[in-house]
Design goal:
With 202 residues, this protein is an alpha+beta fold. The protein contains 5 helices and 9 strands. Helix 3 packs parallel to helix 5 (140-155).
């Protein structure tokens, strides 16, 4: 039986990543692309769509440090006080009848950027999941909670995830449910995380 191999070509506008398990096939694909298109080879992946990639003997590190710093400057939060948690413990965020509304467009832009950041900043994933529930009608309390996340990010803009080579690709998943815990609609709140090869991926 022949050895199974795979090849991945990922593109976004004019940026491209080629990866796979067969070096020979990668070389062939690159040769064909360079023959038919005007392209520049940046060698090993270092940066893609706001994500920094660093290799070391310990594994592959990914972070969005530059993205965070640009985000802080854009939101005018560079000089704000740092906090050590992205959200208050036992928060009671919900839609309150008659409460002051926040700037909807600004809130949506803020939350969209935080959602993208949560790809490498799993420490904010829960908090971002909460504030994203109020995109359709954000209120001042929701905006304040979103700003808390930004102030938390300011304390450690370069935090990163490491993917280690652990010698296996075992998939593990863990889940917990807060039964009827959503104060807005009494639906259950589900939390989960999964690991592949001992590395946290969601």
């Amino acid at each position: 039986m022949g050895r199974f191999s795979h090849l991945r070509l990922i593109t976004y506008v004019d940026d491209m990543i080629i990866t796979g398990s067969d070096d020979e096939e990668i070389v062939k694909l690159r040769r064909n692309l360079f023959t038919n298109f005007e392209m520049k080879d940046l060698e090993r992946l270092k940066y893609f769509l706001g994500i920094d990639v660093l290799r070391s003997s310990k594994g592959i590190f990914i972070s969005q440090r530059n993205y965070v710093l640009d985000f802080l400057a854009e939101t005018g939060m560079v000089d704000y006080k740092i906090i050590d948690m992205p959200m208050q413990v036992n928060h009671k965020l919900k839609i309150v009848e008659g409460a002051t509304l926040a700037d909807k467009e600004r809130y949506q832009r803020l939350v969209e950027k935080l959602i993208y950041l949560s790809h490498t900043r799993l420490d904010i994933a829960y908090a971002v999941g909460i504030i994203s529930q109020f995109m359709h009608k954000p209120q001042e309390d929701h905006m304040e909670a979103a700003m808390m996340i930004v102030r938390y990010l300011k304390g450690a803009p370069g935090s990163r995830i490491i993917f280690k080579r652990n010698g296996h690709l075992k998939v593990e998943a863990y889940i917990d449910v807060d039964w009827a815990g959503n104060p807005n609609d009494r639906r259950s709140i589900v939390g989960y995380f999964t690991l592949v090869g001992g590395n946290l991926v969601t």
